[in-house]
Amino acid sequence: MFKFISLASAAFLCSTALTFAADLTDNAVPPVAFETPAFTWTGAYIGISGGAGWLDGSTTKFGRYHDKQDFDGSVFGGFVGYNWQFSNGIVVGVEGDVEYNSNDEKFFGYRTFGTDWQGSVRGRVGYAFDRLMVFGTAGWTMANGHIEYPCVDENTTFSGWTAGAGIDYAVTDKVFLRGEYRYSDFGSKEIVRGMNVDFDQSIVKVGLAVKF
Which of 35, 64, 111, 188 is deepest in the core (most CB within 10 A)? Predict the structure, then answer.
């Protein structure tokens, strides 16, 4: 009889222990899953860029004589900006740049005209496909034009508008690459007495930037 009671007690204790263990397993807190934050284009950035430029210039001398010239050269400079990305993938921003522009050529056979620096302030609108963003940009631009010939060395600042499009691609969370095309119309201005210069330029360039 005593043996029977002992076996029954042991069986009851084992059953209770198994039930308690099962309850602990059922009520266990699942492990916490940590999600990787989605990439965003929001933030400030600064970068460098360089490429090729094709400038078309025309000159009118005293309203009677005309000359046209193509100015092929290179550009190199830096840019800085800020982006805001919305939940629907739209990205808006503002950007400014300053570049050195090398493109001297001769007008009327002996007068050398060219630009040495240019800059712009623009708005940008784009759409983000995760780390790839396509964008359009437009705004105000300016350039310093200079003309040289015997006993004359003059320069003046031209201003106009610029517009273009490009692609930014983030290779890391902090670094992105850029490819861009821009057209700039710098308007017309009298650079020396009796001589008006009118020029516009197309630029293709690539860039590298750091995002903060």
Answer: 111
The phi, psi pair for 99, rounded to 5°, reads: -140, 150
pLDDT tens digits, 172-199? 999 999 999 999 999 988 888 888 888 8
Domain with 124 in it: 43-211
Is residue 38 in some structural domain? no
* C-beta of residue 18 within 8 angstroms of C-beta of residue 12: no
Number of domains in the chain: 1
pTM: 0.78
Q: Find, among 82, 79, 151, 147, the residue nearest to 116 by Cα.
A: 147
What is the per-residue pLDDT across 5-17, written as a single tens digit (0 to 9) for each? 444 444 444 455 4
How far is 52 from 202, CA to CA, in rounded Å? 8
Please work out, in degrees rounded to the nearest 5, the angle formed at the alpha carbon of residue 200 by the alpha carbons of 110 and 159: 100
Output the CA angle 44-45-47, nearest 5 degrees: 165
